[in-house]
Structure formats: C-alpha cells, structure tokens
Amino acid sequence: MDKLQELTQKLYNEGLSKGKEEGEALLAKAREESAGIVKKAQQEAEAILEKARKDAEDYKIKMEGDVKMAATQTLQATRENLEKLIVAEAVDKPVKDALSSEEFVKGIITAVAQRFTAEESQDLALVLPENLKKGLEPFVKSELAKAIGKGVEATFSKKFGGGFRIGPKDGSYFISFTEENFRELVGEYLRPATKKILVG
C-alpha cells in the first residue's frame, strides 16, 4: 500500500511539476505576447500622434498662408477702391461740368469737325445730348457748317448727358467723345499718380 501511495504521490508530483512548467511557459509566452501588443500599440499611438502633429503643422502653415493671402487681397482691393474713389472724385464732376457746358462742347466739336473735314470729303453726322439741344442745334446748323465748309446733320440723344459722337454722314463709323470716354481717358492719366500716392 505504501508503494501504491508512493507511486500515486510520484505521479501527482510529476504531473504537478509538468503542469507548473507548462503553466509557466504559457504565462511567459502570454507575457511576451502582451509586451509585443503593448509595444505595437505604443508605436501605433506614436505614429498617430506624429501624424496629428504633422497635420496640425501643415494646417497651421496653410492657415497662415491663407490669412496672408486674404490680407494681401483685402489690402489690394482697398487700394483699388480708394484709387477709384479718388480718381472719380477728381474726374467725374469736372468732366461732367465741362461736357455739359455748351461753349466747351462747341469748341471741341469745332476742333474735331475741322480735323474730320481735312481727312474726309463727305458731310458729317453728330449725335449730341438731348439736354444741350436748345443751345447746340442753332450752332450746328449755322456756325459749325460755315466753319468746316461741309454739311452737318445733328441728332439728339438722351443716352448720354454730355459730350458727343461724330462721324461721316453715311454712318460707316462714329468716334465717341462722351462723358464716359473722357472720364476713362483722364482717369488713365490720374491712376498712376494716385497709385503712387497710395502705395508709395
């Protein structure tokens, strides 16, 4: 009986010892795998953080660039608007006043018509502002025709408030001397000087 008990004890001890070894091996393997998982998770977390840092830096650089560009465009638009306002203020009223003056318009028409008659052999046609009809119609019919030695036909339009259009009577072409044309012409000369004042 002692032998049986001894054998049982021996088997139990061997089984226990073997189970303990296997358990320790499994535990070691589990620890190793766990360490690998933790290390991989840390690497992935670091990669995610690094990407987040890079994305944040890229976004910051992009935002700074966008803000800088927006500021530059706003400044440029403001300068252009100021330039337009200054030029308009300096040009609009004087041009409007001059081209609404019968005497001034008569002088320009005469000078332009004389240039036309020197180069053209045909009669002239004029389109004048309706608001100057009273003062300009008699001038065109008598004084201008005598001054240039050609026939002149005048029509009056409400489409423009000052200035005139002139061309051969056959209507093949017209040259325009309206308020808008003069504003653009004078404005072109003023813009560089205005820009220099605004930009420095």
> Rg to the nearest angstrom?
48 Å
What would CATH call the homologous superfamily of the domain at 99-199? ATP synthase, E subunit, C-terminal
- Top-tier CATH class of the domain at 99-199: Alpha Beta
Briefly note the CATH topology name of the domain at 99-199: hypothetical protein PF0899 fold
Structural class: alpha+beta
Largest sheet: 4 strands, mixed
CATH architecture of the domain at 99-199: 2-Layer Sandwich
Q: What's the total number of strands?
A: 4
Q: Given the C-alpha coordinates, what overall shape results?
A: rod-shaped
Termini gap: 117 Å
- Order of strands side by side in the largest beta sheet? 2-1-3-4
Number of helices: 4
Q: pLDDT average, as an integer?
A: 76
Helix content, binned percent: over 70%
Strand-residue proportion: 5-15%
- Uncertain spans: none
Order of helices and strands: HHEHEEEH
How would you explain this protein's 3D organization?
With 200 residues, the chain is of the alpha+beta class. It is built from four helices and four strands. The chain has helices spanning 2-99, 102-119, 133-148, 179-199; strands at residues 124-129, 152-157, 163-168, 175-178. The chain has a four-stranded mixed β-sheet with strand order 2-1-3-4. Helix 1 (2-99) crosses helix 4 and helix 2 runs parallel beside helix 3. The protein is rod-shaped, with a radius of gyration of 48 Å. The model has no long low-confidence stretch (mean pLDDT 76).
